[in-house]
């Protein structure tokens, strides 16, 4: 059995061998994707001197009373030549008229009979409230850097550069297969010893949450021959990652490790010194044209998603040139029972308190308790050597 860090390093080594493609997509479809080229400004930003607020454009001088000679609104520029004794009404974002170099806010003036009276206490200096041409970015300078993850503000920036199309990493295709005799469709009411097959839904949404493409191959009962043929079939398809749940422990029907081997998968490791999710399997299916990462996850619902959060998501982020998730240091609000030498990932709720981050561990850490996972917003990390963290201890947390 290997440590968590050893396991993660081995997966990092293999995911780097995936040939990650690129594609050009519409800007409107780009949210959450990772851009793969530096984007240059095609114009100066802003493209002209403009007003930072509603007010009056003036040519700076000591004159405080001026004639209002006109008005300019955003997108409706009018030609004026502003002299020492003139003022032009102007709205936020409007182009500064010829001769003007400053804008006096509307709240700092009075207007009487088309005469502008600048208040005695108004801040009054050259260049005030004017955003110069190119003050945000000059033409041909980088406006969005390569490997930036696209969020709404990045979308707006790209739009301002005229980027109707953007070049991004392709989504990884992740095949998902769930196994277990106990499973029934979610449309059926469980009876006897049956439960609804929820792992495929959880994993689909997990991959979608990090902007990858899940492909659901449904669930199968524990028939070795049927599962083996299904596994072989899926490995022949156009996928980058193959994830299964169930059948990786040491029970009578836990034959997924052998099925993988018979299907041509090379085992990298099995079992990691963690809780939950210890019987985690990782291997690689490789041919001339394929390099598929194979993850065999435990069937317990919590273990399945925790394994995703702590193994699969981090390595995909690395492949996509994204930094690792932030780790928060928080004050534990209750004790956690831990008396073994494993690295624990406990579900909890982290909030911002008066003196910093505070986290409360859930009362139940059962690997079958989906309800508690659904109500958690973080995983509390307890290292192998630490025993029974108590209230008041500082702990590390990752958001989920």
Describe this structure in words.
By secondary structure, this protein is an alpha/beta fold. It has 4 domains: about 5-20 and about 170-320, Molybdenum Cofactor Biosythetic Enzyme, Chain A; about 35-45 and about 135-170, no CATH class; about 50-130, Molybdopterin biosynthesis moeA protein, domain 3, CATH 2.170.190; about 325-400, MoeA, C-terminal, domain IV (Beta-clip), CATH 2.40.340.10. Helix content is about 20%, strand content about 30%. It is built from 7 helices and 26 strands. The protein has helices at about 5-15, 150-160, 200-210, 225-235, 255-260, 300-320, 370-375, and strands at about 20-25, 40, 50, 55-60, 65-70, 85-90, 100-105, 110, 115-120, 130, 140-145, 165-170, 175-180, 185, 195, 215-220, 240-245, 265-270, 275, 280-285, 290-295, 325-330, 345-355, 355-360, 380, 395-400. The strands form 7 sheets. A 6-stranded mixed beta sheet has the order 7-4-6-5-9-8, with no helix packed on it. A 6-stranded mixed beta sheet has the order 16-13-17-21-20-18, sandwiched between helices. The radius of gyration is 30 Å and the shape is elongated. The two termini are about 25 Å apart. The mean pLDDT is about 95.
């Amino acid at each position: 059995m290997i440590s968590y860090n050893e396991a993660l390093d081995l997966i990092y080594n293999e995911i780097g061998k995936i040939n990650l493609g690129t594609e050009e997509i519409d800007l409107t479809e780009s949210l959450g994707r990772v851009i793969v080229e530096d984007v240059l400004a095609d114009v100066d930003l802003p493209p002209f001197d403009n007003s930072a607020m509603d007010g009056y454009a003036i040519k700076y001088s000591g004159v405080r009373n001026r004639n209002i000679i006109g008005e300019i609104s955003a997108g409706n520029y009018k030609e004026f030549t502003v002299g020492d004794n003139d003022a032009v009404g102007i709205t936020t974002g409007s182009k500064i008229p010829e001769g003007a170099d400053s804008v006096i806010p509307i709240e700092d003036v009075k207007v009487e009979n088309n005469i502008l009276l600048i208040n005695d206490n108004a801040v009054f200096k050259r260049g005030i409230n004017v955003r110069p041409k190119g003050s945000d970015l000059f033409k041909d300078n980088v406006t969005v850097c390569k490997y930036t993850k696209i969020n709404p503000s990045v979308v707006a920036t790209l739009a301002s550069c005229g980027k109707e199309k953007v070049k991004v990493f392709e989504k990884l295709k992740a095949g998902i297969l769930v196994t277990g005799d106990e499973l029934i469709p979610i449309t059926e009411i469980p009876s006897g010893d049956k439960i609804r097959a929820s792992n495929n839904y959880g994993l689909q949404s997990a991959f979608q949450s990090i902007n990858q493409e899940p492909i659901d191959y449904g669930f199968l009962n524990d028939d070795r021959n049927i599962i083996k043929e299904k596994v072989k079939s899926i490995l022949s398809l156009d996928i980058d990652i193959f994830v299964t749940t169930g059948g990786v422990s040491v029970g009578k029907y836990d034959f997924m490790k052998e099925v993988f081997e018979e299907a041509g998968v090379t085992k990298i490791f099995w079992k990691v010194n963690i809780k939950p999710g210890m019987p985690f399997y990782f291997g690689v299916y490789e041919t001339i044209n394929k390099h598929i990462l194979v993850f065999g996850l435990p069937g317990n619902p919590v273990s399945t998603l925790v394994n995703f959060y702590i193994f699969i998501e981090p390595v995909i982020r690395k492949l996509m040139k994204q930094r690792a998730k932030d780790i928060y240091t928080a004050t534990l609000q209750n004790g956690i029972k831990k008396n073994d030498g494993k690295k624990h990932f406990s579900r909890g709720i982290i909030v911002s308190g008066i003196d910093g981050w505070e986290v409360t561990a859930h009362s139940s850490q059962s690997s079958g308790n989906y309800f508690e996972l659904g109500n958690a917003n973080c995983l509390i990390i307890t290292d192998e050597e630490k025993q029974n963290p108590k209230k008041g201890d500082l702990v590390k947390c990752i958001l989920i």
